[in-house]
Write a structure and sequence with these properties.
The complex is a heterodimer of chains A (156) and B (289).
Chain A lengths: L16 E7 L2 E8 L1 E6 L2 E5 L6 E13 L10 E12 L3 E6 L2 E3 L5 H16 L4 H28 L1
Chain B lengths: L3 H38 L1 H16 L2 H4 L11 E7 L9 H19 L2 E7 L1 H7 L5 E7 L8 H16 L5 E11 L2 E10 L10 H5 L1 E2 L3 H76 L1
Parallel strand pairs in B: 1-2, 1-4, 2-3
Antiparallel strand pairs in B: 4-5
Helix pairs in contact in B: 1-8, 2-8, 6-8
The chains are: A alpha+beta (156), B alpha/beta (289).
């Protein structure tokens, strides 16, 4: 590790993670950050600089991003994802998801209405296929609602 | 010769048609640019997925997975055909549907049964009229930028059919945007899954796979198929818009020509009427003498 010299960067010293949130409609976020919390099948994991290389699976949930080391919880950025693939290496982290909605972009009231509709659909599902689709919808909107709530609570 | 009043009405009607075609031409041009940009934006996604798959394939994982299994014999095939909702795009729909019909004939000759998923109203109307083709699903009015949920609906039914053994291959027929003057209807294989091999970084080689390489493979494969369908839909949209733009440009040009011709005819008719009136007047004067 280089401690002196003007050419030493924060990344070489291992203080930041290069975080890329890759979605079908493009790079949602490509930034140097301090910490990323990801929802995985084994629970939430927090990725800090210097993490061991891991390739894993993300489940539907919220990604939380802390941009600077000293940032308070109120400054966290949230993204709702519907599951995807995670690739962690010592320098950074790539998350591959179909869709990622930023907490800022989600309208809480609309999502709440969508969730209610999805729950109704689930309760009135006639066959297994419909039920499965409705379950997916419920999960998706529940995650989006959670992210919107987290965003609102912390930004107040 | 038609009256000047009738000609005037026709000119007015051609002019309003021209306004519409001109507007559609401009709208198509701007939408085409957006579709092209969206298609480019999805590239990093495909790259990351391809890198992981290349590594997993080198570890022999793909040989074991059912979605990669090459069938010994294809006895049924699922075709996903992508056309427009409203036409008005020159030969676009005709080209796609011609290719689709050709596939059906070839399969028929080879004794292969066909299932179809059709996307776009024009395709729906076509496939539902054909005998001996099982239509699995029809989609219409998909937005220019299909959401994950809409894509999953298509991808899920394709994978379901393949995994259940109802079909041994899944192909998608769409219009590839090659350049602004060249768009071609093509057939691309989705399943058994295939991908282009790329460079694998050192970090992926040393990475641990959680919970297992098999499950990661499953997730990445699904995402790659999804990306392939997304790409097909977007490039088809870009082609649709550029073909509509050209069709509408031709229509606008034709309307201009027609307006010129009609204006000329109207002027002639008006002049003819004036000459006749003068002749009548001078004839009348002569008669009074």
């Amino acid at each position: 590790m280089v401690l002196y010299g003007t050419w030493s960067t924060e990344r070489e010293e291992g203080l930041i993670v290069k975080f890329q949130l890759v979605t079908l409609s493009g790079m949602k976020l490509d930034d140097d950050v301090y910490e990323v919390v990801l929802p995985t099948a084994a629970g939430e994991i927090a990725v800090f600089p210097g993490h061991e290389p891991v390739v894993g699976i993300a489940v539907p949930g919220a990604i939380a991003v802390r941009h600077e080391k000293g940032d308070a919880n109120s400054k966290l950025d949230y993204f709702a994802i519907t599951g995807g693939v995670i690739e962690i290496n010592p320098l950074g982290l790539k998350v591959l998801v179909d869709e990622a909605d930023s907490g800022e972009d989600i309208v809480e009231a609309e999502t709440k209405a969508a969730l209610d509709r999805a729950i109704k659909l689930r309760d009135s599902a006639k066959d297994q296929v419909e039920l499965e689709k409705a379950h997916q919808l419920v999960d998706r909107h529940a995650v989006r609602l959670k992210v919107a709530e987290l965003h609102r609570r912390h930004r107040r | 010769m038609p009256s000047t009043r009738a000609l005037k009405t026709r000119i007015r009607s051609v002019k309003s048609t021209k306004q519409i075609t001109k507007a559609m031409q401009l709208v198509a041009a701007s939408k085409m640019r957006k579709a092209q940009e969206a298609e480019k934006a999805s590239l990093p996604y495909t790259q990351v997925a391809s890198e992981l798959l290349t590594y997993l394939a080198s570890q022999g994982e793909t040989d074991r997975h059912p979605l990669y299994k090459q069938p010994e014999k294809i006895s049924a095939r699922l075709l996903i055909v992508v056309a427009t909702d409203k036409g008005l795009a020159g030969a676009y729909d005709a080209n796609v549907l011609k290719l689709y019909a050709k596939q059906l004939l070839d399969d028929d000759a080879a004794g292969i049964k066909n299932n179809t998923i059709s996307i776009g109203r024009r395709a729906n109307r076509f496939v539902t009229r054909i005998k001996d083709v099982k239509v699995v699903a029809v989609y219409q009015d998909l937005p220019d930028d299909p959401s994950g949920a809409q894509l999953r609906a298509v991808v899920d039914s394709a994978i379901q059919q393949f995994e259940a053994g109802a079909v041994q291959a899944v192909d998608i027929i769409y219009t590839q945007f090659i350049s602004s003057v060249n768009q071609q209807a093509v057939v691309q294989r989705l399943l058994p899954a295939g991908f282009e091999k790329t460079e694998v970084s050192q970090t992926v080689r040393t990475a641990e796979f959680e919970p297992s390489a098999e499950e990661v493979l499953e997730a990445v494969t699904y995402r790659l198929i999804e990306a392939q369908v997304y790409h097909a839909l977007l490039t088809a949209r870009a082609s649709e818009y550029i073909m509509r733009m050209l069709a509408m440009k031709n229509a606008t040009d034709n309307a201009n020509d027609l307006i010129d011709d009609l204006t000329l005819a109207m002027n002639k008719a008006r002049q003819g009427a004036i000459t006749q009136e003068l002749a009548e007047i001078s004839g009348g004067v002569e008669a009074l003498k």
